[in-house]
Structures are given as C-alpha cells and as structure tokens.
Amino acid sequence: MKISLYIVFFSLFMTSLMASGKWSDGKPYAGEWSRGYVLSNLSIIGLGQYQLYTPSSFHRQRIKKIVVMLHGCISNPEEFLRSSRFDQKSEREGFAVLLPIQPKGSNLVNCWNWYAPLNFLKNLNPLFDLNEMDIVLKIMDQVQEELGVEERDTYGVGISAGGAMLSNLANCYPNRFSGVALHHTPMFLSTIYSWHSMYQLLLLAERGADISPEQAGRLGYGCALSGSAGGIQTPVPAIIFHGTKGQMNEKHAEEVAQEYYVFNDLLDNGVRDNSLGEFVSEFTTVQETYDYEVYTVTYNDRPFIVRYRIHELGHAWSGGDNNWNFNDPAGPSSTDAIVEFFMRHGL
After folding, report:
1. Can you spell out the DSSP letters for 48-68?
2. In the chain, where do the E strands start and end?
3. Cα separation of 160 and 211, whole Å?
4. Closest CA to 163 of 205, 129, 114
5. Looking at the domain assignment, is residue 26 inside a domain?
6. Which terminal residue of the chain has fewer beta carbons within 10 Å of its beta carbon, N or C?
7. What is the DSSP string of 87-102?
8. Whose CA is closest to 166, among 95, 243, 92, 102?
9. What is the residue range of 82's domain?
10. Listed residue (186, 165, 185) closest to 177, CA to CA
11. Three-state SS for 154?
12. Between the CA of residue 95 and those of 83, 346, 347, what are the distances in Å?
C-alpha cells in the first residue's frame, strides 16, 4: 500500500498551554515557554499551533526581535530549540524564538510539506488560508503584534524540510525576513516537476533540483513581486550549512546559494547584473571540530550570502547537542555562526 507524505486529514483538538517552568525531560529552563494557536480554515488538520520562547533576561515589552525556527521531520519545536541551543542564545541576546508546529494531521512524520505545489504558491486571496506558508505568516503576525515587534525585525532558521519551507517563505515574502539560515536544505522549487512522484522525491537527495538556480531565482523574484505584497522588495541575507557525508548530496547547498544569489541580484535593482559581486572561499582547520570551507558574497560591506561546507558532517545540526537526534557536536557551531550573521544584519 502506497503511503503518501502529502496532507493526511486528521482532526486535532487545539489547546493553549501555559509554561510549566521545565522542559519535557524535567530540567528547568530560564525563560518563558508558552504555547498558542491561530484560527484558520486549516485548523481542522491541526495547523496553526506554535510554541514561543521568551528570555528571562528581557521583559516581553523590551523584546524587539524574533527568530522563527521551522523544525525538520520526526522532530518538534522543543527538540529543535534545545538541541541547537537557541534558547541559550535567546537568553544572551534578548530575542524571542517562535516555533510553529507541523502536526501529524498535516504530515504523519511532522515534515513541512514544502514540495507540494500549494506550498510554494503565494495566496492572493486574503479571505482564506491556502497553504502552510499562510499559516506560518499568520502565526508571525500574531506574535509580532503580541510582542510589539516590527514586521521586518524577524529572522528565519530552518533545517531539512523546515529549511525548505522557510526558503519558500523567503522567496515569496522577502520583506518579512531580515535574514534566513538554511541547514541541509534543498533549493526553492527543487521539486517543481517531480513533486507528484514519490520515487522522484526519494531520488531528489542525490540528483539535485529539477531546475537550475538561475531559473529558480527568477521564479522566486516573480513570486516576491506578485500580488498585493508586491512592489519594492528588499534583498534577503542568507547563511547556508551542509555536510559532505549526509544523505543529501552537497550539490543542494551549492544550488541554494546560487539561487539566493540570483534572487537577491534581481531584488537589488530589478536587473540580473551580478551586482552582489563574487563568492570568495576560505578553508578553516580547527583542532576541536571538523574542517570546513566558507564561501562568502559581500554586499554593502557585510557578508550577505554565506555557505558552510563542513567536512565529515552528516545530515545533522553542526555543533548541536547529540542528546537529541540529528545533531553532531563535532561540527563547528552553526548556531554561533547564525546569530553572528544575523547580528551583522540588525538582530
């Protein structure tokens, strides 16, 4: 029997839970950990739930920045936050962390359905929610209003399927993010022709995207300009991580970086003129971690597109806590690199 990873309809009861003061393993945490939801026509399958971490070091009224984190498959918000240690960064730097939840009612293994056509299309009808992108944006709107955070003062982090969904969002709604971080993520529209075939989706990890980064970047630019949210758009800084040993071929990271180059080159002035400059590479050997290379495009005197190629790293969060799945503490800390990168762009 063929089991589809597309939307499976279940009805879930939606609840709003107060913070208990402890993580699921009983260990105390410093900040406030709360749960909420937004109402939607897609609530019947559980979409619209989220969790929010606000640091104890800052009163809610003083929080001016939000980092949105989209978890990967077979994962959940708490696991992603803790294993990456973004809760510790939140305490130190004073930003809130918003973690939308992908429920089993939408995907049996909690994957964001980034490859389904509805989820890489911009919704031009404000009267109903069309897809998972709409739900994430609605969650962002609600929490931004609750905390008094400006729309642009938001940054995105995603791994694997969560990173792919974040890339859909950033390409179609670039003005909603001041920076994105993508960890082991396929390129925007990488399954534009093969989304309907489970066999082709399984081959995606090795073969790479259906279309070229040039085509994807131009289509992303078109999505950004379409509809009521079109008009002048702002380039989106991006930092990308990928290991050399994972099930996903490292060509995916090259495609992601090149697509963001094309996309941002067009967002810059509407012309494909290579105005962002060239990638410059640097190889680093550190005794305590895997070796890695960093490829950087500088724009307006800041690193704007950065790609980490990490030797020996599998499909795991680099520098993460290996008490949780999909983390490798032997890699350089991607969390440190992401926060430093975001701080160069206003975090």
Report:
1. TEEEEEE-TTS-GGG---EEE
2. 32-37, 49-54, 66-70, 96-100, 154-159, 180-183, 238-243, 280-284, 292-299, 302-310, 317-318, 327-328
3. 19
4. 114
5. no
6. N
7. HHHHHHH--EEEEE--
8. 102
9. 32-343
10. 165
11. strand
12. 18, 12, 8
Asked whether residue 83 is domain-assigned, the answer is yes
Determine, yes or no, domain membership for 22: no
Closest C-alpha to 168, from 193, 151, 185: 185
Q: How do residues 193-243 score in pLDDT, each as one tens digit? A: 887 777 777 778 788 889 999 999 999 999 999 875 546 678 999 999 999
CATH number at residue 44: 3.40.50.1820
Instruction: Give residues with Cβ within 8 angstroms of 225, minimum separation 6.
Output: 231, 233
Domains in the chain, number: 1
Within 8 A by CB and 6+ apart from 59, the residues are none
Within a domain: 20: no
Count CB atoms within 10 A of the CB of residue 251: 14
Q: What is the pTM of this model?
A: 0.89
For residues 301 and 46, what is the distance between their CA atoms, to the nearest angstrom? 44
Q: Among residues 74, 29, 27, which one has the least CA distance to residue 52?
A: 29
* Block residue for tokens 């040993």: 245
The confidence score (pLDDT) of residue 16 equals 25
